[in-house]
Protein backbone atom coordinates (compact mmCIF):
# COMPACT_ATOMS: atom_id res chain seq x y z
CA UNK A 1 0.00 0.00 0.00
CA UNK A 2 1.43 3.31 -1.07
CA UNK A 3 1.64 6.06 1.56
CA UNK A 4 1.92 9.83 1.22
CA UNK A 5 5.71 9.92 1.20
CA UNK A 6 5.79 13.73 0.93
CA UNK A 7 4.23 13.94 4.39
CA UNK A 8 6.69 11.62 6.01
CA UNK A 9 9.54 13.65 4.59
CA UNK A 10 8.07 16.91 5.81
CA UNK A 11 7.33 15.93 9.38
CA UNK A 12 10.14 16.38 11.89
CA UNK A 13 9.73 15.17 15.46
CA UNK A 14 12.03 17.70 17.05
CA UNK A 15 11.46 17.38 20.77
CA UNK A 16 10.62 14.62 23.23
CA UNK A 17 10.88 15.74 26.82
CA UNK A 18 9.35 14.05 29.86
CA UNK A 19 9.27 15.35 33.44
CA UNK A 20 11.46 18.37 32.60
CA UNK A 21 9.14 21.36 32.68
CA UNK A 22 5.72 22.69 33.53
CA UNK A 23 3.13 22.25 30.77
CA UNK A 24 2.26 25.22 28.59
CA UNK A 25 -1.03 23.95 27.16
CA UNK A 26 -2.22 20.85 28.96
CA UNK A 27 -3.92 20.60 32.36
CA UNK A 28 -2.41 18.58 35.20
CA UNK A 29 -5.79 18.01 36.82
CA UNK A 30 -7.53 14.65 36.56
CA UNK A 31 -10.16 14.73 33.80
CA UNK A 32 -12.65 12.34 32.24
CA UNK A 33 -12.02 11.07 28.75
CA UNK A 34 -13.02 13.01 25.71
CA UNK A 35 -14.32 10.94 22.81
CA UNK A 36 -13.06 10.38 19.27
CA UNK A 37 -15.71 9.06 16.87
CA UNK A 38 -14.16 7.59 13.74
CA UNK A 39 -16.90 7.40 11.12
CA UNK A 40 -16.34 5.33 7.98
CA UNK A 41 -18.44 6.84 5.21
CA UNK A 42 -18.77 7.47 1.47
CA UNK A 43 -20.34 9.95 -0.96
CA UNK A 44 -22.39 7.26 -2.74
CA UNK A 45 -23.58 5.74 0.53
CA UNK A 46 -27.29 6.66 0.81
CA UNK A 47 -27.55 6.08 4.57
CA UNK A 48 -24.29 7.82 5.51
CA UNK A 49 -25.97 11.25 6.01
CA UNK A 50 -28.21 9.58 8.60
CA UNK A 51 -25.06 8.44 10.40
CA UNK A 52 -23.68 11.97 10.32
CA UNK A 53 -26.88 13.27 11.90
CA UNK A 54 -26.32 10.88 14.81
CA UNK A 55 -22.70 11.96 15.24
CA UNK A 56 -23.60 15.64 14.95
CA UNK A 57 -26.12 15.26 17.76
CA UNK A 58 -23.52 14.03 20.28
CA UNK A 59 -20.90 16.58 19.23
CA UNK A 60 -23.45 19.38 19.75
CA UNK A 61 -24.56 17.86 23.05
CA UNK A 62 -20.97 17.68 24.34
CA UNK A 63 -19.08 20.65 22.83
CA UNK A 64 -15.35 20.42 23.37
CA UNK A 65 -15.69 16.82 24.58
CA UNK A 66 -16.59 14.82 21.48
CA UNK A 67 -14.60 15.02 18.23
CA UNK A 68 -15.39 13.22 15.00
CA UNK A 69 -13.54 12.36 11.81
CA UNK A 70 -15.14 11.25 8.53
CA UNK A 71 -12.99 8.62 6.83
CA UNK A 72 -13.36 7.96 3.10
CA UNK A 73 -11.68 5.05 1.29
CA UNK A 74 -11.93 4.30 -2.43
CA UNK A 75 -14.77 1.85 -3.02
CA UNK A 76 -18.05 1.50 -4.85
CA UNK A 77 -19.56 3.84 -2.24
CA UNK A 78 -16.68 6.32 -2.23
CA UNK A 79 -15.90 7.41 -5.81
CA UNK A 80 -12.87 9.33 -7.08
CA UNK A 81 -14.94 11.95 -8.92
CA UNK A 82 -14.69 15.50 -7.59
CA UNK A 83 -14.51 16.06 -4.70
CA UNK A 84 -12.35 12.98 -4.18
CA UNK A 85 -12.35 12.62 -0.39
CA UNK A 86 -10.43 9.34 -0.35
CA UNK A 87 -6.97 9.09 1.14
CA UNK A 88 -4.44 6.31 1.42
CA UNK A 89 -4.67 6.62 5.18
CA UNK A 90 -8.43 6.29 4.97
CA UNK A 91 -7.95 3.07 3.02
CA UNK A 92 -5.50 1.65 5.57
CA UNK A 93 -7.75 2.58 8.51
CA UNK A 94 -10.75 1.00 6.78
CA UNK A 95 -8.88 -2.20 5.92
CA UNK A 96 -7.61 -2.59 9.47
CA UNK A 97 -10.71 -1.52 11.42
CA UNK A 98 -13.87 -1.69 9.31
CA UNK A 99 -13.15 -4.05 6.42
CA UNK A 100 -16.07 -6.36 7.26
CA UNK A 101 -18.50 -3.54 8.10
CA UNK A 102 -21.01 -1.94 5.81
CA UNK A 103 -21.18 1.84 5.51
CA UNK A 104 -21.72 3.87 7.57
CA UNK A 105 -19.81 2.40 10.51
CA UNK A 106 -18.16 3.91 13.56
CA UNK A 107 -16.01 3.40 16.63
CA UNK A 108 -16.00 5.52 19.79
CA UNK A 109 -12.48 5.68 21.22
CA UNK A 110 -11.74 2.35 19.47
CA UNK A 111 -13.21 0.70 22.57
CA UNK A 112 -15.75 -1.63 20.90
CA UNK A 113 -15.12 -5.12 19.57
CA UNK A 114 -16.96 -4.22 16.36
CA UNK A 115 -18.34 -1.13 14.65
CA UNK A 116 -21.81 0.31 15.26
CA UNK A 117 -24.13 2.31 13.01
CA UNK A 118 -23.49 5.99 13.82
CA UNK A 119 -27.13 6.85 13.16
CA UNK A 120 -28.33 4.43 15.85
CA UNK A 121 -28.78 4.86 19.58
CA UNK A 122 -25.40 3.14 20.06
CA UNK A 123 -23.63 6.41 19.21
CA UNK A 124 -25.01 8.08 22.31
CA UNK A 125 -24.64 4.96 24.47
CA UNK A 126 -20.99 4.35 23.60
CA UNK A 127 -20.17 8.06 23.84
CA UNK A 128 -21.67 8.29 27.33
CA UNK A 129 -19.69 5.23 28.43
CA UNK A 130 -16.42 6.84 27.44
CA UNK A 131 -17.24 10.29 28.82
CA UNK A 132 -17.85 8.80 32.27
CA UNK A 133 -14.39 7.19 32.53
CA UNK A 134 -11.38 8.87 34.14
CA UNK A 135 -8.58 9.56 31.67
CA UNK A 136 -5.05 8.42 32.41
CA UNK A 137 -3.65 11.21 30.25
CA UNK A 138 -4.64 14.74 29.28
CA UNK A 139 -3.70 16.09 25.86
CA UNK A 140 -3.61 19.63 24.43
CA UNK A 141 -1.53 21.78 22.14
CA UNK A 142 -1.22 24.53 19.59
CA UNK A 143 -0.84 24.74 15.80
CA UNK A 144 0.79 27.83 14.28
CA UNK A 145 0.11 28.13 10.54
CA UNK A 146 2.08 30.52 8.36
CA UNK A 147 -0.36 31.24 5.53
CA UNK A 148 2.44 32.46 3.25
CA UNK A 149 4.67 29.37 3.46
CA UNK A 150 1.88 26.89 4.41
CA UNK A 151 4.12 25.52 7.17
CA UNK A 152 2.37 24.37 10.34
CA UNK A 153 4.32 24.19 13.59
CA UNK A 154 2.50 21.73 15.85
CA UNK A 155 3.18 21.59 19.60
CA UNK A 156 1.49 18.77 21.53
CA UNK A 157 1.64 18.00 25.25
CA UNK A 158 0.46 14.86 27.01
CA UNK A 159 0.36 14.83 30.82
CA UNK A 160 -0.27 11.60 32.74
CA UNK A 161 -2.48 12.00 35.80
CA UNK A 162 -2.31 8.24 36.48
CA UNK A 163 -0.41 5.24 35.18
CA UNK A 164 -1.26 3.79 31.79
CA UNK A 165 -1.74 0.02 31.60
CA UNK A 166 1.00 -0.06 28.96
CA UNK A 167 4.57 1.20 29.38
CA UNK A 168 4.43 2.88 25.99
CA UNK A 169 1.53 4.65 24.31
CA UNK A 170 0.98 6.13 20.84
CA UNK A 171 0.36 9.75 19.81
CA UNK A 172 -1.60 10.39 16.59
CA UNK A 173 -2.28 13.78 14.95
CA UNK A 174 -4.94 14.16 12.24
CA UNK A 175 -5.58 17.05 9.86
CA UNK A 176 -9.29 17.47 9.12
CA UNK A 177 -11.07 19.83 6.75
CA UNK A 178 -14.55 21.36 7.00
CA UNK A 179 -16.92 22.90 4.45
CA UNK A 180 -16.05 20.79 1.42
CA UNK A 181 -18.95 21.09 -1.03
CA UNK A 182 -19.85 18.07 -3.12
CA UNK A 183 -22.37 15.38 -3.93
CA UNK A 184 -23.79 13.04 -1.29
CA UNK A 185 -26.44 10.37 -1.80
CA UNK A 186 -29.18 10.39 0.80
CA UNK A 187 -28.51 13.98 1.86
CA UNK A 188 -31.92 15.34 0.87
CA UNK A 189 -33.74 12.50 2.61
CA UNK A 190 -31.71 12.23 5.81
CA UNK A 191 -29.69 15.42 6.41
CA UNK A 192 -31.04 18.36 4.37
CA UNK A 193 -29.83 20.87 6.99
CA UNK A 194 -26.25 20.13 5.91
CA UNK A 195 -26.86 21.18 2.31
CA UNK A 196 -26.18 24.45 0.49
CA UNK A 197 -28.27 24.45 -2.66
CA UNK A 198 -27.77 21.05 -4.27
CA UNK A 199 -24.38 20.48 -2.59
CA UNK A 200 -23.67 18.63 0.63
CA UNK A 201 -21.30 20.24 3.13
CA UNK A 202 -18.74 17.60 4.07
CA UNK A 203 -17.38 18.28 7.55
CA UNK A 204 -14.41 17.08 9.66
CA UNK A 205 -13.12 15.06 6.71
CA UNK A 206 -9.78 13.25 7.11
CA UNK A 207 -7.17 14.87 4.87
CA UNK A 208 -3.87 13.75 6.37
CA UNK A 209 -2.13 12.11 9.31
CA UNK A 210 0.92 13.96 10.61
CA UNK A 211 2.33 11.10 12.68
CA UNK A 212 2.56 7.44 11.82
CA UNK A 213 -0.90 6.17 10.94
CA UNK A 214 -1.11 4.26 14.24
CA UNK A 215 0.72 6.92 16.23
CA UNK A 216 4.24 7.74 17.31
CA UNK A 217 5.49 5.90 20.36
CA UNK A 218 5.61 7.98 23.57
CA UNK A 219 6.99 7.12 27.03
CA UNK A 220 7.14 7.14 30.03
CA UNK A 221 3.44 6.64 30.70
CA UNK A 222 3.47 6.92 34.49
CA UNK A 223 1.64 9.45 36.66
CA UNK A 224 3.33 12.88 36.62
CA UNK A 225 5.03 12.37 33.23
CA UNK A 226 4.88 15.26 30.76
CA UNK A 227 5.48 14.38 27.11
CA UNK A 228 6.12 17.27 24.70
CA UNK A 229 6.41 16.87 20.95
CA UNK A 230 6.86 19.41 18.16
CA UNK A 231 6.28 18.76 14.47
CA UNK A 232 6.84 20.92 11.41
CA UNK A 233 4.43 20.02 8.65
CA UNK A 234 4.22 21.33 5.10
CA UNK A 235 0.51 21.61 4.34
CA UNK A 236 -0.18 20.35 0.81
CA UNK A 237 -2.04 22.44 -1.75
CA UNK A 238 -4.47 19.62 -2.56
CA UNK A 239 -5.26 16.15 -1.28
CA UNK A 240 -6.64 13.37 -3.49
CA UNK A 241 -5.66 11.85 -6.80
CA UNK A 242 -7.39 12.27 -9.20
CA UNK A 243 -9.83 15.17 -8.72
CA UNK A 244 -8.14 16.36 -5.55
CA UNK A 245 -9.63 18.87 -3.13
CA UNK A 246 -7.87 22.14 -2.32
CA UNK A 247 -6.68 22.30 1.29
CA UNK A 248 -8.28 25.51 2.52
CA UNK A 249 -6.15 26.90 5.36
CA UNK A 250 -9.15 28.69 6.84
CA UNK A 251 -11.15 25.46 7.12
CA UNK A 252 -8.66 22.95 8.51
CA UNK A 253 -8.15 21.86 12.09
CA UNK A 254 -5.97 19.34 13.89
CA UNK A 255 -6.99 16.64 16.36
CA UNK A 256 -4.53 14.75 18.56
CA UNK A 257 -5.18 11.57 20.52
CA UNK A 258 -3.29 9.00 22.58
CA UNK A 259 -3.89 5.27 22.28
CA UNK A 260 -2.86 2.70 24.87
CA UNK A 261 -1.22 -0.18 22.99
CA UNK A 262 -0.99 -1.94 19.66
CA UNK A 263 -3.14 -4.98 19.00
CA UNK A 264 -1.50 -6.34 15.88
CA UNK A 265 -1.45 -3.30 13.60
CA UNK A 266 -4.10 -1.18 15.26
CA UNK A 267 -3.33 1.00 18.29
CA UNK A 268 -6.24 1.04 20.75
CA UNK A 269 -8.16 2.02 22.82
CA UNK A 270 -8.09 5.82 22.73
CA UNK A 271 -7.18 7.12 26.20
CA UNK A 272 -7.95 10.76 25.42
CA UNK A 273 -8.40 13.16 22.49
CA UNK A 274 -8.49 16.92 21.97
CA UNK A 275 -8.56 19.51 19.21
CA UNK A 276 -5.41 21.61 19.01
CA UNK A 277 -5.76 25.39 19.19
CA UNK A 278 -4.93 26.90 15.77
CA UNK A 279 -3.28 30.29 15.19
CA UNK A 280 -2.43 32.17 12.01
CA UNK A 281 1.14 33.50 12.24
CA UNK A 282 3.70 35.48 10.24
CA UNK A 283 7.46 35.67 10.61
CA UNK A 284 7.45 39.35 11.61
CA UNK A 285 7.62 41.31 14.86
CA UNK A 286 3.94 42.25 15.15
CA UNK A 287 0.97 40.53 13.57
CA UNK A 288 -2.23 41.21 15.54
CA UNK A 289 -5.53 40.18 13.99
CA UNK A 290 -9.14 39.69 14.92
CA UNK A 291 -10.38 36.33 16.16
CA UNK A 292 -13.83 35.97 17.70
CA UNK A 293 -16.07 39.03 17.32
CA UNK A 294 -19.65 39.08 18.53
CA UNK A 295 -22.29 40.78 20.64
CA UNK A 296 -22.23 39.50 24.20
CA UNK A 297 -25.06 37.07 24.81
CA UNK A 298 -27.23 38.93 27.32
CA UNK A 299 -30.58 40.74 27.31
CA UNK A 300 -30.31 44.03 25.45
CA UNK A 301 -32.97 46.73 25.19
CA UNK A 302 -30.69 49.44 23.89
CA UNK A 303 -28.75 50.14 20.73
CA UNK A 304 -25.58 50.40 22.84
CA UNK A 305 -24.39 46.80 22.59
CA UNK A 306 -21.60 45.00 24.53
CA UNK A 307 -19.10 43.76 21.94
CA UNK A 308 -16.67 40.93 22.68
CA UNK A 309 -13.43 41.07 20.66
CA UNK A 310 -10.63 38.54 20.58
CA UNK A 311 -7.22 39.83 19.47
CA UNK A 312 -4.62 37.23 18.46
CA UNK A 313 -0.88 37.95 18.38
CA UNK A 314 0.56 35.96 15.48
CA UNK A 315 3.89 37.81 15.48
CA UNK A 316 7.24 37.18 17.13
CA UNK A 317 7.13 39.93 19.80
CA UNK A 318 4.88 40.81 22.71
CA UNK A 319 2.20 43.45 22.15
CA UNK A 320 1.70 45.94 24.98
CA UNK A 321 -0.71 48.44 23.40
CA UNK A 322 -3.26 48.63 20.59
CA UNK A 323 -5.28 51.43 19.06
CA UNK A 324 -8.24 50.42 16.92
CA UNK A 325 -11.56 51.68 15.65
CA UNK A 326 -14.92 50.20 14.76
CA UNK A 327 -16.99 51.71 11.94
CA UNK A 328 -20.72 51.27 11.41
CA UNK A 329 -22.60 53.10 8.65
CA UNK A 330 -19.65 55.50 8.16
CA UNK A 331 -19.53 56.39 11.88
CA UNK A 332 -16.22 55.47 13.55
CA UNK A 333 -15.53 54.98 17.26
CA UNK A 334 -11.94 54.89 18.57
CA UNK A 335 -10.66 52.54 21.30
CA UNK A 336 -7.34 51.75 22.97
CA UNK A 337 -5.94 48.87 25.02
CA UNK A 338 -2.82 48.42 27.17
CA UNK A 339 -1.54 45.25 28.77
CA UNK A 340 0.53 42.20 27.86
CA UNK A 341 -0.25 40.03 24.83
CA UNK A 342 2.63 37.57 24.37
CA UNK A 343 3.57 36.09 21.02
CA UNK A 344 1.23 33.32 19.80
CA UNK A 345 -1.45 34.07 22.37
CA UNK A 346 -4.80 35.85 22.47
CA UNK A 347 -6.79 38.19 24.67
CA UNK A 348 -10.51 38.93 24.92
CA UNK A 349 -11.69 42.54 25.34
CA UNK A 350 -15.21 43.88 25.88
CA UNK A 351 -16.23 47.21 24.37
CA UNK A 352 -19.50 49.04 23.69
CA UNK A 353 -20.76 49.97 20.23
CA UNK A 354 -23.88 51.73 18.97
CA UNK A 355 -25.77 49.33 16.68
CA UNK A 356 -29.26 49.61 15.24
CA UNK A 357 -31.43 46.50 15.22
CA UNK A 358 -30.85 43.93 12.49
CA UNK A 359 -27.76 42.80 10.55
CA UNK A 360 -25.04 45.44 10.72
CA UNK A 361 -21.68 45.44 8.94
CA UNK A 362 -18.90 46.44 11.32
CA UNK A 363 -15.39 47.22 10.10
CA UNK A 364 -12.56 46.92 12.62
CA UNK A 365 -9.27 48.70 11.86
CA UNK A 366 -6.11 48.26 13.95
CA UNK A 367 -4.27 51.56 13.45
CA UNK A 368 -1.44 51.37 15.98
CA UNK A 369 0.62 48.64 17.70
CA UNK A 370 3.05 49.45 20.53
CA UNK A 371 2.94 53.11 19.55
CA UNK A 372 3.73 52.53 15.86
CA UNK A 373 1.35 52.88 12.92
CA UNK A 374 -0.20 49.64 11.73
CA UNK A 375 -2.67 48.68 9.01
CA UNK A 376 -5.22 45.92 9.49
CA UNK A 377 -8.87 45.89 8.47
CA UNK A 378 -11.63 43.30 8.63
CA UNK A 379 -15.38 43.56 8.17
CA UNK A 380 -17.82 41.28 9.98
CA UNK A 381 -21.62 41.19 10.12
CA UNK A 382 -23.28 41.28 13.55
CA UNK A 383 -26.96 40.71 14.28
CA UNK A 384 -28.24 43.29 16.76
CA UNK A 385 -31.37 42.36 18.70
CA UNK A 386 -34.46 44.50 18.82
CA UNK A 387 -36.90 44.50 21.73
CA UNK A 388 -40.55 44.89 22.64
CA UNK A 389 -41.56 47.69 25.00
CA UNK A 390 -44.13 47.25 27.78
CA UNK A 391 -45.47 49.90 30.17
CA UNK A 392 -46.93 49.67 33.69
CA UNK A 393 -47.29 52.26 36.47
CA UNK A 394 -46.01 50.32 39.48
CA UNK A 395 -42.46 49.38 40.53
CA UNK A 396 -43.08 45.88 39.24
CA UNK A 397 -45.67 43.85 37.38
CA UNK A 398 -46.62 40.20 37.23
CA UNK A 399 -46.04 38.52 33.90
CA UNK A 400 -47.94 35.38 32.92
CA UNK A 401 -45.88 32.99 30.81
CA UNK A 402 -48.03 30.40 29.04
CA UNK A 403 -46.25 27.47 27.44
CA UNK A 404 -48.56 25.23 25.46
CA UNK A 405 -46.60 22.08 24.74
CA UNK A 406 -47.11 19.62 21.92
CA UNK A 407 -46.77 15.86 22.44
CA UNK A 408 -42.99 16.13 22.89
CA UNK A 409 -43.02 18.22 26.06
CA UNK A 410 -39.94 16.33 27.26
CA UNK A 411 -37.93 18.30 24.67
CA UNK A 412 -39.06 21.76 25.85
CA UNK A 413 -37.28 24.06 28.32
CA UNK A 414 -37.42 27.83 28.77
CA UNK A 415 -36.09 30.62 30.97
CA UNK A 416 -36.59 34.31 31.65
CA UNK A 417 -33.34 36.12 32.50
CA UNK A 418 -32.45 39.65 33.53
CA UNK A 419 -29.70 41.91 32.17
CA UNK A 420 -27.12 40.23 34.46
CA UNK A 421 -28.14 36.78 33.15
CA UNK A 422 -29.83 35.90 36.44
CA UNK A 423 -32.69 33.45 35.93
CA UNK A 424 -35.98 35.00 37.04
CA UNK A 425 -38.13 32.01 36.05
CA UNK A 426 -37.75 28.76 34.13
CA UNK A 427 -39.67 25.67 33.18
CA UNK A 428 -39.56 22.28 31.51
CA UNK A 429 -38.83 19.71 30.45
CA UNK A 430 -42.45 18.58 30.66
CA UNK A 431 -43.87 15.08 30.48
CA UNK A 432 -44.44 13.74 27.00
CA UNK A 433 -48.09 13.16 26.10
CA UNK A 434 -49.33 9.68 25.18
CA UNK A 435 -50.62 10.87 21.81
CA UNK A 436 -50.50 14.00 19.70
CA UNK A 437 -52.02 16.98 21.48
CA UNK A 438 -51.35 20.00 23.65
CA UNK A 439 -51.18 20.89 27.35
CA UNK A 440 -50.79 24.35 28.94
CA UNK A 441 -48.25 25.25 31.64
CA UNK A 442 -48.60 28.70 33.24
CA UNK A 443 -45.90 30.44 35.28
CA UNK A 444 -46.26 33.81 37.01
CA UNK A 445 -43.21 35.96 37.70
CA UNK A 446 -42.62 39.48 39.03
CA UNK A 447 -40.67 41.74 36.68
CA UNK A 448 -39.20 45.08 37.80
CA UNK A 449 -39.97 48.35 36.04
CA UNK A 450 -37.27 50.08 33.97
CA UNK A 451 -35.51 46.79 33.25
CA UNK A 452 -34.61 44.55 30.33
CA UNK A 453 -35.42 40.85 30.39
CA UNK A 454 -35.01 38.06 27.86
CA UNK A 455 -37.32 35.12 27.30
CA UNK A 456 -35.68 32.07 25.69
CA UNK A 457 -37.40 28.83 24.72
CA UNK A 458 -35.51 25.72 23.62
CA UNK A 459 -36.60 22.58 21.82
CA UNK A 460 -34.13 19.71 22.06
CA UNK A 461 -35.69 18.07 19.00
CA UNK A 462 -34.85 21.10 16.84
CA UNK A 463 -38.36 21.40 15.36
CA UNK A 464 -40.19 23.77 17.71
CA UNK A 465 -43.44 22.97 19.51
CA UNK A 466 -45.85 23.09 16.56
CA UNK A 467 -44.58 20.64 13.95
CA UNK A 468 -47.29 18.00 13.58
CA UNK A 469 -47.48 16.55 17.09
CA UNK A 470 -49.94 19.16 18.36
CA UNK A 471 -50.32 22.89 17.73
CA UNK A 472 -48.22 24.19 20.61
CA UNK A 473 -47.52 27.87 21.16
CA UNK A 474 -46.32 30.32 23.82
CA UNK A 475 -47.53 33.70 25.06
CA UNK A 476 -46.43 36.31 27.62
CA UNK A 477 -49.01 38.72 29.09
CA UNK A 478 -48.92 41.45 31.73
CA UNK A 479 -51.14 41.58 34.82
CA UNK A 480 -53.92 43.35 32.90
CA UNK A 481 -54.03 40.69 30.22
CA UNK A 482 -52.22 42.71 27.55
CA UNK A 483 -50.31 40.33 25.29
CA UNK A 484 -46.61 41.26 25.17
CA UNK A 485 -45.22 38.32 23.18
CA UNK A 486 -47.15 35.69 21.26
CA UNK A 487 -45.80 32.95 18.99
CA UNK A 488 -47.28 30.07 17.03
CA UNK A 489 -44.48 27.81 18.32
CA UNK A 490 -42.90 27.24 14.92
CA UNK A 491 -39.14 27.56 15.40
CA UNK A 492 -36.10 25.29 15.21
CA UNK A 493 -34.02 24.62 18.34
CA UNK A 494 -34.45 28.03 20.00
CA UNK A 495 -36.41 31.29 19.91
CA UNK A 496 -35.99 34.37 22.08
CA UNK A 497 -37.44 37.83 22.76
CA UNK A 498 -36.09 40.90 24.59
CA UNK A 499 -38.65 42.86 26.63
CA UNK A 500 -38.08 46.42 27.87
CA UNK A 501 -40.21 47.62 30.80
CA UNK A 502 -41.02 51.31 31.34
CA UNK A 503 -43.09 53.48 33.65
CA UNK A 504 -46.47 54.37 32.18
CA UNK A 505 -50.16 53.54 32.07
CA UNK A 506 -50.46 52.29 28.50
CA UNK A 507 -50.04 48.83 27.03
CA UNK A 508 -47.71 47.81 24.23
CA UNK A 509 -50.29 48.55 21.54
CA UNK A 510 -51.73 51.62 23.25
CA UNK A 511 -48.33 53.35 23.35
CA UNK A 512 -47.93 52.94 19.61
CA UNK A 513 -51.52 54.02 19.00
CA UNK A 514 -51.08 57.25 20.98
CA UNK A 515 -47.72 58.17 19.46
CA UNK A 516 -48.01 56.77 15.93
CA UNK A 517 -50.76 56.01 13.46
CA UNK A 518 -50.14 52.54 11.99
CA UNK A 519 -52.57 51.42 9.30
CA UNK A 520 -54.21 49.44 7.85
CA UNK A 521 -54.37 46.61 10.38
CA UNK A 522 -54.90 43.88 9.22
CA UNK A 523 -52.74 44.67 6.22
CA UNK A 524 -52.33 42.93 2.88
CA UNK A 525 -49.75 44.91 0.95
CA UNK A 526 -48.60 48.35 2.15
CA UNK A 527 -48.26 49.28 5.84
CA UNK A 528 -48.07 52.99 6.69
CA UNK A 529 -46.61 54.51 9.88
CA UNK A 530 -47.26 58.20 10.57
CA UNK A 531 -45.91 60.24 13.48
CA UNK A 532 -43.22 62.63 14.65
CA UNK A 533 -39.63 61.82 15.52
CA UNK A 534 -39.43 58.47 13.66
CA UNK A 535 -35.88 57.24 13.19
CA UNK A 536 -36.37 53.60 12.24
CA UNK A 537 -39.11 50.99 11.86
CA UNK A 538 -38.41 47.26 12.34
CA UNK A 539 -40.75 44.36 11.62
CA UNK A 540 -40.27 41.09 13.57
CA UNK A 541 -42.01 37.76 13.37
CA UNK A 542 -43.34 36.16 16.55
CA UNK A 543 -40.05 34.26 17.01
CA UNK A 544 -38.14 37.52 17.41
CA UNK A 545 -36.46 37.36 14.00
CA UNK A 546 -35.98 40.69 12.25
CA UNK A 547 -37.60 40.58 8.80
CA UNK A 548 -37.57 44.21 7.67
CA UNK A 549 -35.79 47.36 8.82
CA UNK A 550 -36.42 50.81 7.34
CA UNK A 551 -34.54 53.98 8.29
CA UNK A 552 -36.88 56.98 8.26
CA UNK A 553 -36.03 60.67 7.84
CA UNK A 554 -39.63 61.82 7.56
CA UNK A 555 -42.86 61.74 9.53
CA UNK A 556 -44.26 58.94 7.37
CA UNK A 557 -42.84 55.61 6.23
CA UNK A 558 -44.37 52.92 4.02
CA UNK A 559 -43.38 49.25 4.30
CA UNK A 560 -44.33 46.64 1.70
CA UNK A 561 -45.43 43.44 3.47
CA UNK A 562 -46.72 41.53 0.43
CA UNK A 563 -43.84 39.05 0.75
CA UNK A 564 -44.70 38.16 4.36
CA UNK A 565 -46.70 35.04 5.11
CA UNK A 566 -50.12 35.41 6.70
CA UNK A 567 -49.89 35.78 10.47
CA UNK A 568 -49.03 38.07 13.34
CA UNK A 569 -45.99 40.40 13.42
CA UNK A 570 -44.49 42.99 15.76
CA UNK A 571 -43.73 46.50 14.47
CA UNK A 572 -41.15 48.42 16.51
CA UNK A 573 -41.05 52.18 15.92
CA UNK A 574 -37.80 53.69 17.22
CA UNK A 575 -37.62 57.43 17.77
CA UNK A 576 -34.57 59.72 17.75
CA UNK A 577 -34.13 59.18 21.49
CA UNK A 578 -34.05 55.39 20.91
CA UNK A 579 -37.40 54.94 22.67
CA UNK A 580 -39.18 51.91 21.19
CA UNK A 581 -42.96 51.72 20.70
CA UNK A 582 -44.37 48.35 19.66
CA UNK A 583 -47.57 47.41 17.85
CA UNK A 584 -48.90 44.02 16.80
CA UNK A 585 -50.20 43.76 13.23
CA UNK A 586 -51.82 40.99 11.22
CA UNK A 587 -50.89 40.23 7.63
CA UNK A 588 -53.47 38.45 5.46
Structural summary, described in words:
- Helices cover 9% and strands 49% of the residues.
- It has 588 residues and is mainly β.
- A hairpin with a 6-residue loop joins strand 35 (517-519) and strand 36 (526-530).
- It is globular and about 80 Å long.
- Residues 1-19 have low confidence and may be disordered.
* C-alpha end-to-end distance: 66 Å
Estimate the global geometry from the Cα principal axes: globular
Class by helix and strand content? mainly beta
Binned strand content: over 45%
Count of alpha and pi helical runs: 6
Chain-averaged pLDDT = 90
Main sheet attributes: strand count, strand direction, barrel closure: 5 strands, mixed
Helix content: under 10%
Q: Report the radius of gyration as a whole number of Å.
A: 28 Å
Which blocks of ≥5 consecutive residues have pLDDT under 50? 1-19
> Got a strand count?
41
The spatial strand order of the largest sheet comes to 1-13-6-5-18
